[in-house]
Structures are given as C-alpha cells and as structure tokens.
Write a structure and sequence with these properties.
The chain is α/β, with parallel strands linked by helices. Helix content is 37%, strand content 23%. The chain is elongated, with a radius of gyration of 24 Å.
C-alpha cells in the first residue's frame, strides 16, 4: 500500500495512534514510504448501537428513528446522532442503513421509507429484511441535504490535536458539497503550522457534490469518488457515467483521483467476483490514480491478499492502457500556447516514449514538476527526486522534503526518492550530478533499470529547465 487512511468515523484517537505506531514500525522495517491520510467524519449520520447486539429488521414492519441516544437500539427503535432528522425528511423519502454503508447485500443493509414524522422521531416502513451487526451503522438519506457543517467541531478538534501531532499528509474531507467547504478547510489547516502543507482531497459522496464538481476540483488537491454513498444517491445506471466524467476532469486538471468500494466481497472471501475484478481494471483504464480499500482492510479477513489482488489487476490494466490516445487528448485539452511547465512536462514524456526510456527522473523541491509529468501518463515510472539538505532518511517523518515525497505516493506512476547531495558543499550543478547517480543506483537496485538503458532526466539548471536523454554505461 501507498497511503494509510485513518477514518475517524470509527475508532478513538488512541486506537488510531496505536495503528500509526504500527505503520511507523512497518515503514522502518521495509524501508518504504507510506503517507498518512486523516478521513473526517463530516456530516455523516449514524445509528448508535450501544449494546452491540445484532438487530433483525423484517420487511413490511415498522421501525422508529429517534435522536434520543440514551435509548438502546432494537428491532423497533434505532437511535441516531442527528437531532434534526425529523425536520430534514418528509413522507416518502428513502433512508438506507448499513454497517460501513451499504455493501449492496440485502441481508446486511436495510432500505427504509419514511412513513410519518412524530415530533423528533421518524417512523419508517422496512422495505427488506436484514440483520444489522456492530456498534455503529451508517445512515444515508437519499438526495436530502443534511444541515450539518462539512467540517464539524469534532473534526476540527481531531485535526488540531491528532492531525497536528502526527503531521498528516492528506485530509480527506468527507461529504464535500461545494468549493467553499474546501476553502474553509484549507483556511483552518493554514492556521495549524505544519499542516499548511497538508493536501486536501474532496470526498464526493452525494448529488450535491457532483453538481458542484467543477468548482470543487479547482479548489481541492485531489478527489475521492466515494461510490458507496454515491451508489445510493445516484441511480445505479448513472454511476459509471459520473465516474468516467469525474476521472477525465481530474486527469486533465492534473489532480489525483481516487476510487473507492471496488472489492467488497473480499471482506469475507479470498477472491473477488469477476465483476469486481473488471471494475478495478476499468477504474485504471478510466484514469484513476489510486484505489481506496475500506472494509476489506479495516475488518476484512484477507487484507494482505486483497491488496495483492488489487495490485495485480491494476498492473495488468496499466499494461493495456492506451497511453498514446490519452497523451493526444491531454495535449488537445491543454491547447496552445502552453505554459512553461506544461511544455517541459509533456516534452519529457514525449521524449521518453520516442527513445523507449526505462524511466523518467525529475528533480523537484515541491513535487509539482513531477506531478505534471505524471499527468501525461507516461508508460514508464517517474522517479521524483526530492533533494534534502538535512540528514533525512526514507522513513524520517520530520525531515525536509518528506511531506512532498509522501504526498507524491498517491499519484499514478510517480515514485518518490528522498536524496542528499554527497557533498553538502558542492555547487548546484555538481550536486545534481551526484543525486542523479543516487537516482540511477536506486533504479538499478529496484530492478527498473539495467545497463545500456536510456533515461530521460528533467531538471532545473540555474534559471533554465532542461530535458535530457542519457544512456547508462556498464
């Protein structure tokens, strides 16, 4: 895996801290970078099951949703964490409830129809028989705006304490509904010192987010298509259209796109269904940068096998990705005259394809140039070399450049390398030469480079940006 997501809809800060300590031990042991993403709860509605007993709901029966969280959940009464539910819904509205929202299984998720509102309670008719298990169930009201802040006070408290302490790389902003949500979150992060560097990924989970998608994309650093909720808010036959359109827009904007809910069946099974395997491949072919696994790795029986399987499917899909067609589309979309950086990035990719280079090496301080090269989806890896001046190691979470290195892990085809000039007193050009040797040595050790291979190098020398082709000697 490349990024560890800490979902604060579930679990205490202490639980997530223990997980993070395990992550740090793993990165030290494997000598691999792994980014940290804090996922906010946002305006997520939940059913509270204090007794944690299984709750059976029978089709055509009645169940009451109440804001009184002191009540115990039962087959007749379900306490919810939102006092305004009765004011938000009307007779005939559809409500979905399930653990880790809606797996699609008729036996673990339930579909309710609002029958009437009694004071603060909502009386619903049960449309399918199901058994709910666990301490929390997600509740979703289809196409109804819930008047709760996107970044709640509880979210702010977690970010300013846990997030600041652990210098999170990404913030996943749940239920992003408009561009202003992202602006408010960025303003909040800017006041928290180190978190001013944290990238914000807007999580699109409902029709409102899709309606304002273009404006949200302009403000966010990346997009997460949360298909669990989207699959409920949007007619099933429309989901693929929204996915393709959203991924295309992200690709053309050069912003990372993440797709969720791909192999739900692997939560309990060793192999995905054929439909799920095809879905993962199509996400790659549509332009997704990353696949986000949830229940499969949070409470699933086969987390390692799940990641391995998804990686293999992604790898096969990348082999048949039509890079030539994509490159032409991207060039047409950008148009002329190009910006200086767009011209350099596209030229580097074009040169690498023409000479059949094995790798593209990009020297960068912010990671922007390397991300721009990756935007053009080169068929070979892009090594983003971030030169540090501190005594940094690949697993040092506080060293200069570590933020930029970890944040590039979510971008397709981009592989970061933290490196130091071998002689701190060397001039700029000589330092670049020494780091180039570090980069090519790293490529050789990783197995992506061998003697006589060609390499495209993108670097800045003085005020000039240079793309050059080198051939490795013996």
């Amino acid at each position: 895996m490349s990024v560890a997501r800490f979902d604060f809809s579930l679990g205490s800060p202490e639980y997530h801290t223990e997980t993070l300590e395990n992550l740090k031990l793993a990165t030290a042991k494997t000598k691999k970078l792994c980014a940290v993403m804090l996922d906010t709860q946002g305006p997520e509605l939940q059913v509270i099951n204090k007794g944690e007993s299984c709750i059976s709901l029978v089709a055509d029966g009645t169940v009451v949703l109440t804001p009184d969280q002191e009540q115990l959940a039962s087959s007749d009464l379900l306490p919810v964490n939102f006092k305004g539910l009765a004011k938000a819904v009307t007779k005939g509205d559809t409500i979905f409830i399930g653990q880790y929202l809606f797996t699609g299984s008729e036996t673990t998720s339930v579909w309710l129809e609002v029958d009437e509102v009694k004071n603060d309670d909502v009386v619903c008719t049960i449309k399918n028989s199901a058994t709910l298990a666990g301490a929390l169930f997600t509740l979703h009201v289809a196409q109804v705006r819930i008047e709760m802040p996107t970044l709640s006070d509880a979210d702010k408290e977690i970010i300013s304490t846990w997030g600041t302490k652990h210098k999170i790389d990404f913030l996943s902003l749940s239920f992003t509904r408009e561009a202003e949500d992202v602006r408010r979150a960025r303003d909040f992060l800017s006041k928290l010192g180190d978190l001013s560097q944290t990238k914000i990924f807007a999580k699109i989970e409902n029709v409102e987010g899709l309606t304002h998608f273009d404006e949200i994309l302009q403000e966010a650093d990346g997009i997460i298509l949360s298909r669990g909720n989207l699959g409920i808010d949007v007619p099933p036959e429309k989901v693929f259209l929204f996915q393709k359109d959203a991924l295309y827009k992200c690709n053309m904007a050069g912003k990372a796109a993440v797709v969720t809910r791909v192999v739900d069946s692997m939560t309990d099974n060793l192999r995905p269904t054929r439909a799920e395997a095809t879905d993962v491949a199509n996400a790659v072919l549509d332009g997704s940068d990353a696949i986000l696994l949830g229940a499969e790795t949070y409470r699933g029986l086969y987390p390692v096998e799940t990641i391995s399987t998804v990686r293999k499917i992604c790898s096969e899909a990348e082999k048949v990705f039509n890079q030539d067609l994509y490159f032409k589309q991207a060039m047409k979309y950008v148009g002329e005259p190009m910006s200086h950086l767009e011209s350099i990035a596209s030229s580097a990719v074009r040169a690498a394809v023409k000479v059949n280079a094995s790798i593209i090496i990009c020297f960068t301080s912010t990671g922007k140039a390397a991300r721009l090269i990756a935007k053009y989806r080169p068929p070979m890896p892009v090594l983003s070399v971030i030169v540090t001046r501190s005594k940094a190691t690949q697993v040092d979470y506080s060293s200069s450049g570590a933020f930029e290195a970890r944040q590039s892990l979510v971008v397709r085809a981009l592989f970061p390398l933290l490196a130091e000039p071998r002689d701190p007193d060397e001039g700029v050009y000589e330092a670049d030469e020494s780091v180039l040797k570090v980069a090519t040595d790293y490529g050789m050790a990783s197995g992506v480079l061998k003697s006589r291979d060609r390499v495209v190098v993108c670097q800045k020398i003085g005020d000039a940006s240079v793309v050059k082709i080198i051939e490795l000697d013996n």
